[in-house]
């Protein structure tokens, strides 16, 4: 049975249970498998040699905060250079993600889905047991797959600290 953490996250003040480990700066980033589309999967290895900013959202087109978070990292991605990949992961179905990305003009952020087996959510400790969505969070992983920045946002409806996440990327590029 996967590790469960309670009391570390809320949704509108209601306690949530997160499934998986609490990752920390200095940890080796766990591998994961998520979907680019309904069939094709990618893993951490697909971004080898790059600095990775992974933005995790509960659902792209159902909350204003998820939308704003992805748009903000879209703006930042254009400025971070070719050695950085910015990824947003949610459990939305890939065709919903694709439709949302096209409608919103998202070109610099790679949008991936953890809908199939919640592999990313469980590996990174962001799977919300009660609702099977991912908890808002940000991970910055260096080119050697060592975690350099982690933010588990405590309240699902709040924004992450964009400035700190971008500063962590700039520090290692």
UniProtKB/TrEMBL annotation:
Annotated Thioredoxin domain residues: 23-171
EC number(s) per entry: 1.11.1.-
Keywords: Antioxidant, Disulfide bond, Oxidoreductase, Peroxidase, Redox-active center
Highest taxon above the source species: Bacteria
InterPro entries linked to this entry: Redoxin, Thioredoxin-like_sf, Thioredoxin_domain, TPX, Tpx_Peroxidase_subfamily
GO molecular function: peroxidase activity
The name this protein goes by in its record: Thiol peroxidase
């Amino acid at each position: 049975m996967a590790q469960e953490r309670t009391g570390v996250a809320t949704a509108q003040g209601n306690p949530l249970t997160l499934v998986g480990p609490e990752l920390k700066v200095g940890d080796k980033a766990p591998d994961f498998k998520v979907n680019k589309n309904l069939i094709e999967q990618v893993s951490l290895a697909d971004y080898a040699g790059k600095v990775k900013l992974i933005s995790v959202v509960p659902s792209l087109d159902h909350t204003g905060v998820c939308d704003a978070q992805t748009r903000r990292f879209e703006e930042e991605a254009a400025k971070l250079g070719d050695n950085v990949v910015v990824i947003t992961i949610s459990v939305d179905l890939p065709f919903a993600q694709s439709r949302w990305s096209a409608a919103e003009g998202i070109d610099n952020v790679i949008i991936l889905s953890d809908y199939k087996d919640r592999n990313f959510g469980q590996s990174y400790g962001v799977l919300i047991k009660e609702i099977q969505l991912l908890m808002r969070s940000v991970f910055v992983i260096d080119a050697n797959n060592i975690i350099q920045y982690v933010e588990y946002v405590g309240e699902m409806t709040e924004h992450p600290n964009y400035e700190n996440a971008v500063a962590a990327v700039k520090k290692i590029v």
